[in-house]
């Protein structure tokens, strides 16, 4: 699956009217995405990078690369002086900012304009007007765009926040005026949560955007998050490119998106699109932009914010319209009129995007994970699959940047077709070396509520009220998993007896055809009988027979099998001589142990490891930095009291006491860098 192709004639024409060289003021997958379109258009590219990104994929893809500082973002990707120097050094005529970093920074756009360098995005007036949530709301009201009730000024302190929240009525949303991407946002249901939300939101806003101003508005309970893609030129023309459904979120950050939405009818779609265009015209917008709305159960919609940049989830719009949005942004920056009319914009098929993160989905639906990708294989051999990534095998996922691995996009003529393709793509996606969120993504797309389109921004906490636990096996799936583990164990045993296809020792007795095994799963023991005929295995479990067949290539990362006539793709993540096997099955990793009948009878004599008492210790659930420590040795703490705050990927997380106790010792201080599992505080 590719974007609308660029013909040879178009390329020749592009060379006559476009830029010669563009600098991409970003990193990772979005920098790679921009470079790909530039290459199609015959434009040379310049990458900027921090010192830890010197071997990154976007650096290798670009024609030139310039180091702009050390790893911390404020010293590199947010370092305007260094980026301006890179522009002068390379002679770049234009800058594409991607998303995040300086993409919505009006000062950066002003500095570029002063140097005669084109900013591939809107002008500074639109950035300022839409980047300030308070001002944007006032402009939206004037443009007759539906808005959420709330306070239209800047909140001075926590006590004023409590007063305003009381006047609006709980629940309220506290959010950064200059923010986006879910950072600097908190929902408060009472006065205490308002005070705490004000503190965390202002700190996150200052850290992420250099602006700690906050606003408060009514929180629309149980809404959908639906956004409209707009495209406008410098000649007063503007289009809406249909909607994207972005309701599946955790911590106000999107996880799965799709286009179009299952919820909108043509009239509502048109009304939202026309209001989005009205807002764009009100600020004389020129470029690609996104107007975000909250939509309630009665299809009433309210303006949330406008992102004056290319959106993370833009690929699904490209899939259903055939437009290359990066190419359109470059054309608009050169001053050309839009090539299309509103009637030209189609909805062709259905596209779904899963954001693949280096995160542990079992911790708050995704706390960051770091490490090196020891093995990495994208499912690009599948038809109608697109992967936007900026990493490769051997790449490091560090604490300094967003933990996104890629955006996995599937396309189909129907939603059902796109969903089935996403299942297949997730099963065939090989990621080793870091914890990832594929188990959560796969569970979301097969959940009956998601499949039926019954979703809201509360989907994850409603479906998993006690947190995500992985795939819950049915009786039939459990038998499939046990049978696969047993067949894999036997296949490995048989392979170890051979050398270059022959038996290692000529006097080895004839190959066995039947085995009695014991398989342990979730502390349950299962006796299995296994028989083999070529590459086909018949496994008997509790009187039921399971047929498992495949090529059994034990060196491959993927294990394509046919189980009782159904095609399944599993992954063997671990296999040891002691019979331990970890299989990724239906997206979730399962730990099993396969033993011979004799070994199983002896294993009961082995001592078991006593689990650690976690109620008296506090360990860091993720890698990050310590922002604040609220206790000292000797202090008495109540259950649920904040002990310290850890920041990871610009998000602050409050660590609390699991019980009422006295603090025995503190093992961290503000400013420390901690790893996952590091001891922070001990309680008596």
Would you mind describing this structure in some detail?
The chain has 18 helices and 40 strands. With 684 residues, it is α+β, with helices and mostly antiparallel strands. The strands form ten sheets. The protein has an eight-stranded antiparallel sheet, sandwiched between helices. Strands 25-26-27-28-29-30-31-32 form an eight-stranded antiparallel barrel. Strand 23 and strand 24 form a beta hairpin. The chain starts with 7 loop residues before the first helix and ends with a strand. The N terminus is likely disordered.
Task: Describe the SSE topology.
Blueprint: H1 8-17, E1 21-24, H2 28-40, E2 44-50, H3 57-61, E3 64-69, H4 80-90, E4 94-96, H5 106-114, E5 118-119, H6 124-131, H7 133-142, H8 158-168, E6 172-176, E7 185-188, H9 191-209, E8 214-218, E9 224-232, E10 238-250, E11 253-259, H10 266-282, E12 287-295, E13 301-307, H11 314-321, H12 325-333, E14 350-357, E15 359-360, E16 367-368, E17 371-372, E18 375-377, E19 385-389, E20 396-397, E21 404-412, H13 415-427, E22 430-432, H14 438-446, H15 448-452, H16 459-463, H17 475-496, E23 498-499, E24 502-503, E25 514-521, E26 524-533, E27 536-541, E28 544-550, E29 559-563, E30 566-575, E31 580-585, E32 588-596, H18 597-603, E33 617-619, E34 624-629, E35 636-637, E36 642-648, E37 651-656, E38 661-666, E39 673-674, E40 679-683
Parallel strand pairs: 1-2, 1-4, 2-3, 4-5
Antiparallel strand pairs: 6-7, 6-8, 9-10, 9-12, 10-11, 11-14, 12-13, 14-21, 15-16, 17-20, 18-22, 19-21, 23-24, 25-26, 25-32, 26-27, 27-28, 28-29, 29-30, 30-31, 31-32, 33-40, 34-36, 34-39, 35-38, 36-37, 38-40
Helix pairs in contact: 5-6, 8-9, 13-14
């Amino acid at each position: 699956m590719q974007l609308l192709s660029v013909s040879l004639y178009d390329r020749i024409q592009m060379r006559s009217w476009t830029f010669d060289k563009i600098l991409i003021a970003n990193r990772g997958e979005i920098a790679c995405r921009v470079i790909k379109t530039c290459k199609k258009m015959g434009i040379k590219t310049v990458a900027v990078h921090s010192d830890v990104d010197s071997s990154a994929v976007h650096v290798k893809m670009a024609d030139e690369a310039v180091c702009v500082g050390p790893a911390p973002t404020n010293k590199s990707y947010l370092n305007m002086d260094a980026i301006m120097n890179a522009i002068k050094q390379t002679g770049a005529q234009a800058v594409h900012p991607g998303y995040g970093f300086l993409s919505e920074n009006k000062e950066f756009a002003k500095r570029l304009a002063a140097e005669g360098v084109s900013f591939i995005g809107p002008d500074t007036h639109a950035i300022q007007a839409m980047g300030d949530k308070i001002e944007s709301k006032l402009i939206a009201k004037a443009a007759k765009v539906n808005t959420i009730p709330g306070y239209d000024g800047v909140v001075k302190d926590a006590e004023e926040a409590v007063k305003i929240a009381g006047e609006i009525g709980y629940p309220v949303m506290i959010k950064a005026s200059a923010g986006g991407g879910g950072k600097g946002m908190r929902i408060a249901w009472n006065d205490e949560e308002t005070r705490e939300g004000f503190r965390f939101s202002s700190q996150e806003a200052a850290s992420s955007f250099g602006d700690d101003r906050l606003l408060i508005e009514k929180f629309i309970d149980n809404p959908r998050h639906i956004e409209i893609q707009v495209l406008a030129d410098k000649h007063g023309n503007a289009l809406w490119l249909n909607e994207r459904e972005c309701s599946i979120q955790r911590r106000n950050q999107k996880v799965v998106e799709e286009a179009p939405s299952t919820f909108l009818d043509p009239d509502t779609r048109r009304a939202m699109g026309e209001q989005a265009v009205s807002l764009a015209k009100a600020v004389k917008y020129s470029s690609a932009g996104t107007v975000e709305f909250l939509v309630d159960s009665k299809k009433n919609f309210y303006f949330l914010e406008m992102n004056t940049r290319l959106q993370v989830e833009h690929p699904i719009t490209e899939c259903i319209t055939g437009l290359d949005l990066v190419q359109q942004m470059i054309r608009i920056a050169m001053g050309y009129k839009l090539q299309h009319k509103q009637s030209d914009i189609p909805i062709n098929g259905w596209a779904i995007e899963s954001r693949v993160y280096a995160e542990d989905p079992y911790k708050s639906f995704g706390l960051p994970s770091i490490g090196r990708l020891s093995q990495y294989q994208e499912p690009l051999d599948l038809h109608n699959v697109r992967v936007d990534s900026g990493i490769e095998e051997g790449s490091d996922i560090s604490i300094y940047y967003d933990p996104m691995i890629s955006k996995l996009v599937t396309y189909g003529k129907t939603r059902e077709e796109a969903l089935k393709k996403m299942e297949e793509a997730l099963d065939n996606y090989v990621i080793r070396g870091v914890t990832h969120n594929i188990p959560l993504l796969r569970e979301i797309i097969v959940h009956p509520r998601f499949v039926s389109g019954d979703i809201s921004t509360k989907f994850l906490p409603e479906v998993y009220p006690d947190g995500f636990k992985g795939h819950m096996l049915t009786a039939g799936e459990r038998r499939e998993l046990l049978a696969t583990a047993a067949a894999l164990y036997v296949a490995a045993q048989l392979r170890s007896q051979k050398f270059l296809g022959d038996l290692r020792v000529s006097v080895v007795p004839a190959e066995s055809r039947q085995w009695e095994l014991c398989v342990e799963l979730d502390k349950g023991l299962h006796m299995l009988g296994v028989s083999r005929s070529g590459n086909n295995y018949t496994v008997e479990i509790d009187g039921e027979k399971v047929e498992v067949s495949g090529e059994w290539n034990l060196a491959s990362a993927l294990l394509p099998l046919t189980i009782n006539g159904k095609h399944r793709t599993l992954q063997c993540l671990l296999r040891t001589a002691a019979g331990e096997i970890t299989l990724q099955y239906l997206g979730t990793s399962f730990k099993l142990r396969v033993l011979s009948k004799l070994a199983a009878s002896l294993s009961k004599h082995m001592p078991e490891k006593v689990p650690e008492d976690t109620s008296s210790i506090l360990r860091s659930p993720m890698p990050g930095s310590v922002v604040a420590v609220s206790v000292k040795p000797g202090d008495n703490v109540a259950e649920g009291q904040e002990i310290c705050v850890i920041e990871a990927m610009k998000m602050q997380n409050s660590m609390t006491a699991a019980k009422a106790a006295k603090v025995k010792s503190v093992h961290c201080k503000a400013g420390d860098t901690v790893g996952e599992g590091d001891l922070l505080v001990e309680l008596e």
